[in-house]
Specification:
By secondary structure, the protein is of the alpha/beta class. It has 6 helices and 7 strands; from the N terminus they run βαβαβαβαβαββα. The protein has a 7-stranded mixed sheet. α2 links the parallel β2 and β3. α1 runs parallel beside α6. The radius of gyration is 16 Å and the shape is globular. The N and C termini lie close together (12 Å). It binds 5-O-phosphono-beta-D-ribofuranosylamine. The site of 5-O-phosphono-beta-D-ribofuranosylamine has 15 residues, from α1, β5 and α6.
């Protein structure tokens, strides 16, 4: 199997990045992580790139045309799949058109419910019975592209935002790799 070159975009902690790095040590996993992109030089997740000798770049999203430069770097690394793992910036329509259906995102709710930020507080306020995470294809609309994998759990009466986050992230570590495997099963 020829593994596809992949790039992970982060903005913060990077626990999903770390999980994907571990999964990709298995030669049967369909991607090789060739590059990490962060829009924040202080993102803790950069450490996982450093520890694993994966090249990383910090992008300045305030700079005009930063996406053009970024696209050039991605092409240079022959990246065919982009995984957004806690990346907090919006990618333009032009950028996405260059990576048609090959930009995926992980979101901490059962989409289409609770798009956007502060999902756990809204889930609790709404008295939901279940919550979880969703991996989906990124399109121009926020958290709206086709769903690849969704995983859920039942909310318990003593759950708070913190415990929901913990339980959701545990599921994310299964859902993201599963979605990647599913994408390449059809290729
Ligand atoms: C995840 O919970 C993901 O659902 C959301 O951002 C969080 C990133 O966490 N989009 P981490 O940086 O991977 O630890």
């Amino acid at each position: 199997m020829v593994r596809k070159n992949s790039c992970i975009f982060i903005s913060g902690k990077g626990s999903n990045l770390n999980n994907l790095i571990k999964k990709s040590r298995n030669y049967n996993f369909p991607i090789n992580i060739k590059l990490v992109v962060s829009n924040d030089e202080k993102a803790y997740g950069i450490n996982f790139a450093k520890l694993n000798s994966i090249p990383f770049i910090i992008i300045n999203t305030k700079k005009n045309n930063y996406e053009i430069e970024l696209l050039r770097i991605l092409k240079r690394h022959k990246i065919s799949l982009i995984c957004l793992a806690g990346y907090m910036k919006i990618l333009s329509k032009n950028f996405l058109s260059q990576y048609k259906k090959m930009v995926i995102n992980i979101h901490p709710s059962l989409l289409p419910k609770f798009k956007g930020l502060n999902t756990f507080a809204r889930v609790l306020k709404n008295n939901e019975k279940k919550t979880g995470c969703t991996v989906h294809i990124v399109n121009e609309k926020l958290d709206s592209g086709n769903i690849i994998v969704k995983k859920s759990f039942f909310i318990e009466s003593n759950d708070d935002e913190e415990s929901l986050k913990k339980k959701t992230q545990k599921l994310e570590y299964q859902a993201f790799p599963e979605a990647i495997i599913r994408i390449y099963r059809n290729h």
